[in-house]
Specification:
The chain has one domain (25-180, 237-415): Alkaline Phosphatase, subunit A, CATH 3.40.720.10. The chain has eleven helices and 14 strands. The chain has helices at residues 3-12, 82-86, 105-114, 127-135, 187-200, 209-223, 226-229, 239-245, 248-261, 291-311, 377-387; strands spanning 31-36, 67-69, 76-78, 91-97, 145-148, 167-169, 266-270, 318-323, 345-351, 358-360, 362-363, 370-372, 395-398, 401-404.
Length: 417
């Protein structure tokens, strides 16, 4: 029993009460691939369609596209998600997600990644860093947490320290930033530099920034070898498979599969082809006009990833998460786009050995508020952790202060067998 549990139990004892020790479900997933849709995916135009409206003048409130049936009876999605519709038995669109943080991108992005509001005194760890801390890499020769995209504090380790941060890359061809050795460096010269570095390095005091830096440096030198770097040779994949993945986003998906196959525990990648509609998922104004191209690209990439993982017996071991910072309102703005909405939006889970049901929760007739099984962001985080065999109530330490992994989140029990 830890200090918090002891104090809580002791304070309740005079009243004949006990602190809650409810058991959480425990899944069997070994890896997680988080697909981040920065900007705010419109739930009413994707996974939670309602009556059809129009973004063309005169504007009509509602979904911008027709809805289609899926493999799960009674569950419908947007017409531009036909491939995922056919695979909906392996997917759950959590339609009743909501939060009350400011509908501003950076603040909401931080909340979705950490599960907690921004604090002036504490930097909380991201979902990926917590998973790295709790589970480590599945292969000692691979990192625990990879980021395909640009790093920021929301995706960082917070108070857990740099040992649980991500290794990131922005160029699929060259691999992680700074890992590719110059062509003029022979293996002998690399070995000589490592020997010189070891001789100059003095053992720093433990648990200091310098100690963390040296540890990170040793890790980078180890991973820069050919064993791990082979994962970034996408040309070694069959041409027909790469062609099925199609776009830049698809190539990120195939890399994510290669990374989890090699033992990376948590991979985050961004679906960020802003050039398709000029605004990405932040569909203000004219961004709405070609939003369907974004949706189709997401549909193809994720559907191919599901098939690819299944073909390699990895789908039940790999939880796929599609996340975004908030949704969009059903009304159109003066330029035919949509604003921001945190009161109701959809997040998506696939694979990972969960008991999928196509959709969980429900919103009202215009997808503006949850009306059935509302899900908080801590609840969604707790479900991810539980799927990966992590106790969402386990306490981490921020200095000497205990901080539960989730901010009171409860896993969605119906998704566990």
């Amino acid at each position: 029993m830890n200090r918090r549990q002891f104090l809580t139990t002791s304070s309740l004892a005079p009243f004949g009460l006990q602190a809650s020790t409810a058991a959480h479900p425990k899944g069997k997933a070994e890896h997680c691939i988080l697909i981040w849709l920065g900007g705010g995916m419109s739930q009413i135009d994707t996974f939670d369609p309602k009556k059809q409206g129009s973004s063309k003048k005169p504007y009509q409130t509602g979904s911008d596209y027709a809805a289609i049936d899926t493999a799960v009876k009674g569950v419908r999605v947007c017409e531009h998600l036909p491939q995922l519709a056919r695979r909906m038995e392996q997917i759950t669109a959590v339609r009743s997600c909501h939060h009350q943080v400011i509908d501003e991108h950076a603040i909401a992005t931080n909340f979705l990644h950490t599960g907690r509001p921004t604090s002036g005194s504490t930097t909380y760890p991201s979902l990926g860093s917590i998973v790295a801390h709790q589970r480590g890499a599945a292969n000692p020769d691979a990192p625990a947490y990879m980021l395909i995209g640009f790093p920021n504090v929301s995706r960082g380790p917070g108070f857990l320290g740099s040992s649980y941060g991500n290794i990131y890359l922005t160029d699929l061809k060259t691999g992680p930033a700074g890992f590719t050795q110059p062509d003029f460096l022979s293996s002998d010269r690399v070995a000589s530099r490592k020997k010189l570095l070891a001789a100059l390095a003095k053992a720093p005091s433990p648990h200091t920034p310098l100690a963390d830096y040296q540890k990170a440096q040793r890790e980078a030198l180890r991973l820069a070898g050919p064993g791990f770097m082979k994962n970034f040779d996408l040309d070694s994949e069959p041409a027909d498979l790469r062609n099925r993945y199609q776009s830049e986003f698809g190539q990120r998906c195939i890399l994510a599969r290669r990374l989890v196959q090699d033992g990376v525990r948590f991979v985050e990648l961004s679906h960020n082809p802003g050039f398709l509609n000029g605004t990405g998922w932040d569909t203000h104004g004219k961004g709405q006009l070609k939003q369907h191209e974004l949706i189709r690209d997401l549909d193809n990439g994720v559907a191919t990833l599901i098939d690819d993982l299944r073909g390699k017996n990895l789908l039940d071991k790999t939880l796929i998460v599609i996340a975004t910072e908030f949704g969009r309102p059903p009304e159109f703005d003066s330029n035919g786009g949509r604003g921001h909405q945190g009161s109701a939006f959809s997040l998506v889970l696939a694979g990972g050995g969960l008991k999928h049901q196509g959709a969980y929760g429900a919103t009202n007739d215009l997808a503006k508020k949850p009306v059935e099984n509302p899900v908080t962001i801590p609840d969604f985080h707790a479900t991810i952790h539980a799927a990966l065999g992590i106790n969402p109530s386990h306490e981490l330490l921020a200095g000497t202060r205990p901080v539960p992994i989730t901010d009171g989140g409860t896993p969605l029990a119906r998704l566990f067998s």
